[in-house]
Specification:
This protein has 143 residues and is of the alpha/beta class. The chain has 6 helices and 5 strands. The N and C termini lie far apart (48 Å).
Length: 143
């Protein structure tokens, strides 16, 4: 509980907001108050290309999204520090992290949340939309 309501943690870089982000946030809002753990620029650089917008710009955009109640800084790809700090009842992340570079991070997040009965909710990945694909299209159009 956070301010008397179930807390739902949603980590994201949110450099280019697309329907997949809105789907995740809408699903998260069904479980309680949505807190976005917004990746710091440094954290994004550890696994993705340089973000188009800096942290402050991305924070303004995410705070304006209807389902979002709180935005906090996510310093690294490791969710554990924020999970321990805020003790959310739920964490929502698309199923795409089950394999690949975030699989170990996923396993640790599940372990940490289980310590206080928290649960991970993994909606299906939104087909047909991807920040990486959108960025590639923007780069191609601007060339």
């Amino acid at each position: 509980m956070y301010n008397g309501h179930p807390l739902v943690y949603v980590p994201m870089s949110a450099d280019i907001i697309h329907p997949g982000h809105i789907n995740i946030l809408t699903i998260a809002a069904k479980y309680g108050d949505v807190m976005v753990g917004l990746f710091a620029d440094e954290a994004i650089r550890t696994y993705k290309p340089e973000p188009y917008m800096n942290y402050g710009q991305r924070k303004i955009v995410v705070e304006a999204l209807k389902p979002v109640r709180y935005v906090v800084r996510q310093e690294s790809r490791d969710y554990e520090p924020n999970l321990r700090k805020y003790h959310p009842e739920f964490m929502v992340h698309g199923k795409d992290w089950r394999e690949g570079p975030l699989a170990a991070v996923r396993a640790r997040a599940i372990e940490v949340l289980a310590e206080w009965g928290g649960k991970v909710i993994e909606p299906d990945y939104t087909q047909g939309v991807s920040s990486s694909v959108l960025k590639a299209k923007v780069k191609g159009a601007s060339a």
